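Re: [ENG-882] Designed sequences occasionally contain unexpected residues at chain ends

Forwarding the minimal case from QA. Structure tokens:
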């Protein structure tokens, strides 16, 4: 019976270690997601079609994100990457296509989808590195101290 209690204690200790590593504050989630968002923004900027003859703000320059906030500007640790409100609908039309399209427009179809596929392994690697840094105590978002969310 003593071995059963010892085993139960070991399992409980292991479980507590897992919970400690998995439970992140909003600031820590924001740091991890921002690392991935920066990488995705770079890839999306490269993949977004560019027209040098266009006057005004180009779609590549309209890509934006706010670290730690979603598209509704709510600080929940998520980081949404996309275009500003003036360019988002144009990006959707350019990505999904329209009824009459030139060969150049047809070649640029689904550029956002291609950017997502291209960026997926890079984003995961950046987020994993940020997670390791936070879990090992090297994060700058107060990962070594307890916040009100930890309780």
């Amino acid at each position: 019976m003593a071995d059963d209690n010892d085993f139960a204690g070991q399992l409980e200790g292991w479980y507590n270690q897992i919970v400690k590593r998995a439970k992140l504050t909003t600031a820590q989630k924001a740091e991890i997601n921002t690392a991935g968002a920066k990488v995705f923004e770079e890839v999306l900027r490269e993949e977004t079609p560019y027209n040098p003859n266009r006057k005004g703000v180009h779609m590549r320059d309209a890509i934006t994100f706010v670290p730690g906030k979603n598209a509704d500007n709510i600080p929940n640790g998520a980081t949404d990457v996309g275009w500003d409100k003036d360019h988002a609908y144009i990006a959707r039309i350019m990505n999904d296509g329209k009824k009459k399209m030139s060969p150049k427009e047809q070649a640029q179809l689904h550029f956002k989808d291609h950017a997502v596929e291209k960026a997926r392994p890079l984003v995961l690697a950046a987020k994993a590195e940020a997670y390791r840094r936070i879990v090992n105590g090297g994060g700058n978002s107060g990962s070594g101290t307890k916040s009100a969310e930890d309780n």
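QA comment: On inspection the terminal residues look reasonable. The longest strand covers residues 63-64. Proposing we downgrade this to a documentation issue.
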